[in-house]
Specification:
The complex is a heterodimer.
Chain A: H1 2-21, H2 30-49, H3 53-72, H4 78-81, E1 108-109, E2 116-117, E3 128-130, E4 134-140, E5 168-174, E6 182-192, E7 195-200, H5 206-210, E8 217-224, E9 229-232, E10 237-239, E11 243-248, E12 279-283, E13 291-297, E14 314-324, E15 337-340, E16 343-350, H6 353-372, H7 376-386, E17 388-393, E18 399-405
Parallel strand pairs in A: 1-4, 3-5
Antiparallel strand pairs in A: 2-5, 4-14, 5-13, 6-12, 6-14, 7-8, 8-9, 9-10, 11-13, 12-15, 15-16, 16-18, 17-18
Chain B: H1 2-22, H2 31-50, H3 54-77
Classes of the chains: A alpha+beta, B mainly alpha.
């Protein structure tokens, strides 16, 4: 009988340990803690009867810790609360320019026939396979496959094919990435090319009709990345704040998927806060991740209201790709979350802004729980005084809202 | 007496890692967690073997093997 109880207790402790090692369970999950409590309490009693004081110590403390974990709920994550390690990032200066970029020699991908594609497809062969923690350097075309600046017409590169949407570079396979894990994308540097284009009113849409847009406008921009400005043919100058509109992975469903509507695994998010210095956390949808990037934006307002930003090629984008089992303890990451110079950002999507706002807030409550160890009601109360909802985009067949928690807003 | 000392030392090694992981100070796939776990649980398994406590041998032996496997995975992934 004693032996059977010993084995039962042992199995109750080993199951959660194995599940954690396989990345299935969180060490703060209720199943993990309950099984540990039951197993350790049983083994403590048996060890007392057997006068095995070392086992009394280990199993007794184990049981107490598991019980405490159940009573306390998830602990605030120290890792998520660490300050942004700015030293690795290319920092946007106050005036919009770029600080000096360190010289790196990472593996790099050029936009060539081998790497360019205009859709997401999980069966697309990776053009590069890297270990977690690797920095990859990309050069990208503009979203519209342009061969050069606007000259009254769009000239496309020969690799463009009918049916292609955004010109993406990739895909990059990350060794060990599997569905359910989190891809950490550290955006180390984003350097725009010397030109870009903004289009407005070029298609007949309900949005354009509502706004009374009855003629197209195309702005051709000259970009000065050093000065941090862009100037159009009419003499208007704006500050440059470059980021990638698409940092995405294919959905698990087979076949080709358009790059235009954003998905839960990111895609065309067009969130203007994803500048250099940000770290993006994405739920991984397929084995290997298969990350593709593109859709350079030299500058964009919240909402991307004409449907385009300053669409530009990127001379250089350095991304460090890493893997995590979880971001929020036992709750899976279901929508992209980022740590940016503007603060923590949780992104939501929907058929309308209401749904997009709800999705963004859902992730923000998880984030607040992980950061401050609070339940969802307290998180909502804190969000109501410290978090701002911003419209990411209204332009890509889907609506996007991102919730922003500024740095130091809750101490 | 020696057995009890070894058992308590092993217990402390395993417990330190468990408590640190629960406090979010240590990842359960880090060397700093896996190495003390492997050594501590191997010591506990050995002392349980002397006392013919086969349930504890099973628990601590498996624990040591899984920790060693975790260490091997980490080394392979480098």
């Amino acid at each position: 009988m004693m032996l059977a109880l010993q084995f039962a207790g042992a199995i109750a402790i080993l199951i959660p340990f194995a599940m954690y090692q396989r990345g299935r369970w969180s060490q703060h999950g209720r199943a993990y803690l309950w099984l540990n409590l039951a197993g350790a309490a049983t083994l403590t009693a048996l060890a007392v009867l057997d006068r095995q004081w070392g086992f009394v110590l280990v199993q007794g403390v184990w049981a107490l810790a598991a019980g405490w974990g159940l009573l306390r709920g998830p602990a605030p994550s120290r890792e998520l609360r660490r300050p942004i390690p700015w030293s690795w990032a290319e920092q946007p200066r106050e005036d919009g320019g770029m600080a000096e970029i360190p010289v790196l020699e990472p593996p790099h991908l050029e936009p060539t026939a081998r790497t360019l594609h205009g859709w997401f497809d999980r069966h697309l062969e990776p053009v590069l396979t890297v270990d977690p923690g690797t920095t990859v350097r990309f050069r990208t075309l503009d979203s519209g496959w342009s061969a050069g600046p606007w000259t009254g017409e769009r000239r496309r590169v020969p690799e463009w094919r009918e049916g292609c949407a955004h010109a993406l570079t990739g895909p990059v396979e990350i060794r060990g990435a599997r569905p359910g894990m989190v891809l950490e994308v550290r955006i180390d540097a984003v350097v725009p090319g010397s030109w870009g284009t903004t289009y407005a009113g070029v298609r007949s849409t309900a949005w354009n009709a509502r706004l009374g847009i009855d003629a197209p406008a195309v702005h051709a921009w000259e970009i000065d990345a050093t000065a941090g400005t862009a100037r159009n043919q009419h003499g208007h100058t704006v500050a440059v704040r470059p980021f990638l509109g698409v940092i995405g992975m294919p959905p698990p469903e087979p076949g080709r998927h358009s790059t235009v509507p954003p998905y839960w695994h990111v895609g065309n998010r067009d969130c203007r806060d994803l500048v250099a210095g940000s770290t993006l956390y994405l739920p991984i949808p397929v084995e290997g991740g298969l990350l593709s990037v593109g859709d350079g934006h030299a500058a964009q307002g919240d909402g991307e209201v004409s449907g385009t930003a300053i669409e530009c090629p990127m001379e250089r984008v350095d991304l460090t790709l890493d893997l995590r089992e979880h971001l929020f303890g036992e709750r899976p990451l279901t929508t992209p979350v980022a740590r940016t110079p503007a603060g923590w950002v949780a992104m939501g999507l929907g058929d309308d802004l209401d749904e997009a706002a709800a999705e963004a807030m859902d992730a923000m409550l998880d984030l607040l729980g992980a950061l401050h160890g609070v339940g969802r009601s307290d998180a909502l109360a804190l969000a109501s005084v410290a978090v701002s909802l911003r419209v990411s985009q209204v332009a890509n067949q889907t609506f996007g809202v991102h919730a922003v928690l500024p740095p130091g807003a809750i101490r | 007496m020696t057995l009890q000392i070894v058992q308590i030392a092993g217990a402390l090694l395993v417990l330190t890692g468990f408590l640190a992981a629960q406090a979010n100070l240590l990842d359960q796939r880090s060397y700093r967690y896996l190495l003390p776990n492997a050594v501590g649980s191997a010591a506990l398994a050995a002392t349980a073997g002397f006392g013919a406590d086969w349930g504890f041998v099973f628990l601590e032996g498996t624990w040591a093997l899984v920790s060693l496997h975790g260490l091997a995975e980490r080394v392979r992934a480098r």
